[in-house]
Amino acid sequence: MDVAEKLKKDEKEFDIIIACDTVIHFNDQIIGKPTDSEDAFRILKQLNNREHSVYTGVTLVDSSLRSTQFHEKTHVVFGNISDEVLRAYVETGEPIGRAGAYGIQLKGSALVQEVRGCYNNVVGIPIFELVKQLRLFLKK
């Protein structure tokens, strides 16, 4: 809402703002983006050969500052990956800046054994649900 309020205050025109953020839920912990390469390796070791949930929260705000929120949940299972492969993946730099320290749409796909739910949610934007929610939001 802060962005929408600032744009409104500065008299900048906009039709709709779409804001998304993705986190990982594993063992009753929220895992965001790694702080550095060692943190990325630690996160990947935690997720290795296990299932975790990916949540993306989405907020829609229109120019009248009317808003709605929703979230999407997807289950992801990592395969049993060797430390050597995990380190090599971390060394690509790809894990930095990504929730859970992997990019499923890039090299990180090699770590993933199974996805149950919306693949695009794991990428960072649950497109199908977003389009559905946009239609509902714009009808109101």
TrEMBL record:
GO MF entries: nucleoside triphosphate diphosphatase activity
Matching InterPro entries: ITPase-like_fam, Maf-like
Alphabetical keyword list: Hydrolase
Cofactor(s) listed: a divalent metal cation
SUPFAM superfamilies named among the record's database cross-references: ITPase-like (SSF52972)
Name of the protein described by the UniProt record: Maf protein
Lineage, broadest ranks: Eukaryota, Metazoa, Ecdysozoa, Nematoda, Chromadorea
